[in-house]
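Convert to structure. Protein one:
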Amino acid sequence: MSIFSKNTKIWFRGLLAAAITTFSTAASGAIALPTVFNFTHDGLMNILKLSIVPTATAVLGYLMKSPIPSAEIPENGQVK
């Protein structure tokens, strides 16, 4: 049994997909400048800095278009 409804699970998947897709697209800039964006600590921090704004924008856009679904709790108290 799950504590989340089916609609909430679908909503979480959409939110996660928006974040992953945008982060990976923004992080692909690492290919353009391998001396700045690499797998050292400083390089990974640069990738994170490059990707955080587009990722946050996509997640907030998703939240605007698809607000958190309300829980559907039937009379017996079990979540669907």
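Protein two, convert as well:
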Amino acid sequence: MTANKAVADGRLVPTAEQVETYTRRQTELIQRFLKGVLDTDGVLEGLQRLMEMSRGFINCDIQPEIPSWADPERPIVQHIQCGMVDPGRLAAVSVFGDREEFFYSEEFLIRAQKLAGSMNACALDFYARAENWKYLPADAEVIVFPNTVFRHPGGNSGVRHLCRVGLEWRRGCSLLSGRFGRVCRVAAIRRS
């Protein structure tokens, strides 16, 4: 194979031969995927990892993983795209004032989505993997990803969160028919 050609801004662009090889492999992958030869979840996870590693960023402009508990026909109520996110810039931000102990879900969601750089469930999908827990703040117990709202089959809606349980982080859902306590923080991009 021939070497990549560099362009003025420092990015590398593929050669014609590399584009041809990529296109051929992509076509083969699609054919195998559609025939059911490949593990569907494995392919989707592999593609997500490939997109994230390509520049070291999380792509928050794609559709997130759909949780098994979500309504099968209309799983997403709202999904606010967040662009490409540097995983090392995660902050867990409180939306509570000094004397505020809890909010009903509507107020919490309004405040959380107004935060500059608040994140969606695409970021949760990244941070939920054990190899990425290193990016999660040590002082947070519950981190809510407010920019994706999922629908439950019964009609309720909820947002995903990560909850610290001992040394592990587990995925969860906070229903939007309840309350959010002071322990809940919002996943947002830390400003430099």
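The chain has two domains: 5-59, 76-189. Confidence is low (pLDDT under 50) at residues 7-11.
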